[in-house]
Design a protein that fits this description.
Helix content of chain B: 55-70%
Largest interface: A-B, 49 and 39 residues
Order of helices and strands of chain A: EEEEHEEHEHHHHHEHEHEEHHHH
CATH topology of the largest domain in chain A: Rossmann fold
Structural class of chain B: mainly alpha
CATH class of the largest domain in chain A: Alpha Beta
Strand order of the largest sheet of chain A: 7-8-9-4-10-11
Number of strands of chain B: 4
Number of domains of chain A: 2
CATH superfamily of the largest domain in chain A: P-loop containing nucleotide triphosphate hydrolases
Oligomer: heterodimer
Number of domains of chain B: 2
CATH architecture of the largest domain in chain A: 3-Layer(aba) Sandwich
Shape of chain A: elongated
Distance between the termini of chain B: 55 Å
Order of helices and strands of chain B: HHEEHHHHHHHHHHHEHHHHHEHHHHH
Chain lengths: 291, 528
């Protein structure tokens, strides 16, 4: 995909989304949204249900081709990738964008460790000389596999699943499944991690642990995180930057403090006062009928 | 009456019987039995001199209906915790049936004929089945009487017990593999041994069955890659078998190439066919994929049938070269100047030599398939197949190329089928499209499903049960298929995921493998 790769501009943000529009037939799911996500920062995308948050993720990770727009990922070492031009399954390996899913998508019948090893597929595939070397049991593959296990072990320790490495992923409790999915995404060694509602269904303690894990990833691994979340404790607690979507449009963009006090955001979440919106004659009618 | 039974059973049942409901349930069963019997048993067309005649068997219909009613009643009573009445009726019934069936051994033929006239069915085998079922019911009643309260086990209790049982079998399977392998290796050698006690005489028929079973084991292992690992339901697997067989047959008859030269070609052709099928169906999953592969299987067969110039159509290809022992043919009277297997090794000619050679050939080929599968499961591509089976979308999000992964699964599975196909062609010496019908695909798939998706040893057991046993029990004639069906139903009730559906992780953390951190993990779980 050399066509999608360009040299990195100095000081370019990690992810630069420009004029992203996604239409499904007549439905406009995302309407001309532009935002940036920096590395070493947690960028949250929030908004009411149906605002188009997951659609943004699906465009970023190649599940949808955007109707209009440019999604530039400035990889710190490999150059710039235009994600909208890449085949979906190449984005994680080449551009280093990993994601988790709103409804957890683990490999249920495979063990926890295997989930993390599968995430390192491309690396291991090269090491096994596309299976031929692996079939012969060449040392190069065995070495690569041991390194893959080490990386998996690191993330298992991080998310506290080392003792359950041999469990079938489907048998894990819900909170562990969420954490395993994050660990699996991290095993692809991404530069941008996209998390789709990671705190959904977690109890307050688990969600506090999640905050810790996400800040750890940001501070220690120095990658960018993109976060869709409804849990305001998570969003306000750890985000460095918040983008608010409503009906597919960006209605606010800024620091948590700015967004929290933005009247358009409050209106989108809490609704408007009835009387403000109604035309005066209708309001008068209503008032008359109420008596 | 129930109160007396309860006292005699030594316990008090929880709730009284709901008689109308019980009668309704049993009546419904009897009605279904009557409906089935009236359609299938009551009338029979018989061949008589001068044409056909309709014979009636109303007695059997009545017997089936009555047996249906009382059999259901016995099941209900057992379910409701009243085994005693079941015991007092089922046991005498079974004993009387047994006595009547064995009457001819003890009494005069005339009396025996008189007794047999009173048996519920005209067919001995059916009478035996009824007797055995009655004994089983009586046995269950005895068991329920001795284990008070056990008959009231809940479904989840039973499933738990079944899981524990399966885990035990699974542990046994670790030894089962080497045992089966050793007996498979030793079996043909017994042909040379004198009559041994306790062992069946190994003759050509037994070896032929062994070759047949091994062929299906190899096909099952090949299909296991596609269906069990990659989760792609392939109903047209026999197409690749046909491609392999025809590749070998055509190359051998037209170009005089030997089996060993053609074998890789046959595998290559079948793998290519797998890729050709794979490309258009990449986007399909589940039922849709099954339909397309089914169609593909039929297409290949119909092409073979109609492309007369190339494949010789329905007449098939005959005179396919037999395999040689690395260039030494198995012939009694070789042409001048050709050294044969027996003359080279200084043996006397025995026709069974060739059969034994074929046996070891397919055994080796099947084992290669097995070793390959076991190895590739632990490689990235094998893990990617399994991940693809679990969740294709998650695979894409991890950078796995679903197209290439599916294509490798299709083509590797097809390649092994092609190898098996060329073996089939060389063993038979004659092939025609008749050998590659849909039922073959169905049988191979049944082997994989019964064995348990992805289980290698399960495929062996299922192939022995589905292919070997029916061959052994050819004497049972039409009841062979009845037993086949009954076995399938029983397995699906008791082990719906297959005989040995248990997956071992392909990789473990080094410490856990040694069992060191196992306790650490448990402690972590116990912590609040």
């Amino acid at each position: 995909m050399s066509a999608a790769r360009q040299s990195v501009a100095v000081d370019a943000p990690l992810l630069n989304v420009e004029h992203l529009t996604m239409r499904f037939g007549g439905l406009v799911a995302i309407d001309d949204v532009s935002f940036e996500a920096a590395e070493k920062q947690i960028t949250a995308i929030i908004g009411p249900n149906g605002a188009g948050k997951t659609t943004v993720f699906n465009c970023l990770t190649g599940f949808y081709k955007p109707t209009v727009g440019r999604l530039a990922l400035n990889h710190p070492t490999a150059g710039t990738f235009l994600l909208e031009q890449m085949e979906g399954f190449r984005i994680p390996g080449k551009a280093g964008v990993a994601r988790t899913f709103q409804n957890i998508r683990l490999f249920g019948a495979m063990s926890v460790l295997e989930n993390l090893i599968v995430a390192q597929h491309n690396k291991l595939m090269h090491a096994s000389a596309f299976t031929f070397g692996g079939l012969l049991g060449l040392p190069r593959y065995r070495h690569a596999e041991a390194k893959a296990v080490d990386l998996a072990r690191y993330w298992l320790d991080r998310v506290g699943l080392t003792g359950r490495a041999d469990w079938d992923a489907a048998n894990l409790p819900y909170g562990d499944q969420r954490r395993l999915e994050i660990a699996r995404a991290m095993c692809t060694q991404p530069v941008l991690l996209c998390l789709d509602e990671p705190a959904a269904g977690l109890n307050p303690r688990e969600s506090a642990d999640l905050n810790q894990l996400l800040t750890y990833i940001r501070d220690e691994h120095r990658i960018g995180l993109l976060l869709i979340e409804h849990d305001m404790n998570v969003v306000m607690g750890i985000s460095d930057h918040i983008v608010v979507l409503d009906y597919g449009r960006k209605i606010s963009d800024g620091s948590p403090e700015q967004v929290r006090n933005d009247p358009t955001v409050i209106r989108a979440y809490l609704g408007e006062e009835e009387d403000e919106e109604l035309p005066p004659e209708v309001a008068a009618d209503l008032a008359a009928n109420r008596d | 009456m129930t109160a007396a039974n309860d006292v005699s059973a030594g316990r008090v049942t929880a709730k009284p019987l709901d008689y109308p409901a019980v009668v309704k349930e049993c009546g419904l069963t009897a009605l279904v039995m009557f409906g089935l019997a009236a359609g299938m048993v009551a009338f029979r067309i018989r061949d008589v001199p001068g044409g056909l005649e309709i014979a009636t068997r109303f007695g059997s219909v009545v017997a089936i209906t009555v047996i249906g009613f009382f059999g259901r009643l016995a099941m209900v009573l057992l379910r409701e915790g009243r085994p005693f009445p079941v015991l007092v009726t089922a046991l005498p019934f079974a004993v009387v049936m047994l006595a009547a069936l064995s009457a001819s051994r003890f009494v005069e033929p005339e009396t025996a004929a008189l007794v047999e006239g009173y048996l519920p069915f005209g067919d001995v085998v059916v009478n035996w089945i009824i007797t055995i079922v009655a004994f089983v019911l009586a046995g269950r009643a005895v068991w329920a009487l001795r284990h008070t309260g056990a008959s009231a086990r809940t479904v989840s209790d039973r499933e738990e017990a079944m899981d524990a049982f399966a885990a035990r079998i699974q542990r046994m399977a670790r030894f089962l593999g080497p045992v089966l392998l050793a007996s498979a290796i030793v079996l043909p050698l017994l042909a040379f041994a004198p009559n041994l006690p306790f062992l069946p005489k190994v003759d050509r028929r037994l070896l032929d069955i062994g070759i047949l079973v091994l062929t299906y084991v190899m096909l099952g292992w090949g299909l296991n890659i596609v269906v069990g690992l990659a989760g792609l339901l392939d109903l047209g697997y026999v197409a690749f078998y046909a491609v392999g067989a025809y590749s070998y047959a055509l190359l051998a008859t037209h170009y005089d190439l030997s089996f060993w030269v053609c074998l890789p070609f046959a595998g290559l052709m079948a793998a290519t066919a797998g890729i050709i099928l794979g490309f258009p169906v990449l986007r399909l999953r589940g039922d849709y994929l099954a339909i397309v592969t089914l169609g593909f299987g039929e297409m290949i067969r119909i092409i073979l049938l109609n492309w007369y110039d190339f494949t010789n159509g329905p007449d098939g290809i005959s005179g396919i070269a037999r395999p040689s022992f690395f260039g030494l043919p198995f012939l009694r009277k070789p042409p001048e100047g050709v050294e044969t297997f027996h003359s080279f090794f200084g043996l006397t000619y025995a026709p069974i030599d060739r059969i034994i050679f074929l046996y070891y050939l397919i055994l080796t080929m099947a084992l290669i398939t097995n070793v390959f599968t076991l190895r590739i499961r632990k490689l990235p591509v094998g893990r990617a197949w399994e991940a693809l089976r679990e969740d294709e979308i998650a695979c894409r999000s991890l950078g796995i190329n679903p197209r290439n992964t599916k294509l490798t699964a299709f083509s590797i599975g097809a390649m092994f089928s092609g190898f098996a196909g060329s073996f089939f062609a060389t063993r038979q010496g004659f092939i025609s499209p008749e050998s590659f019908t849909f039922i073959e695909s169905a049988v191979i798939l049944a082997i994989v499903v019964l064995g348990g998706f992805g289980s290698q040893i399960g495929v062996v057991l299922a192939a022995i049960i589905l292919i070997g046993l029916p061959e052994f029990f050819r004497e049972l004639q039409q009841y062979r298929m009845l037993a086949f069906g009954a076995a399938m139903v029983l397995i699906m009730i008791w082990r719906p995921a297959g005989l040995l559906a248990h997956r071992e992780p392909t990789i473990r953390l080094p410490e856990i493998a040694k069992g060191k951190s196992r306790s650490g993990g448990d402690a972590a779980e116990a912590a609040p």
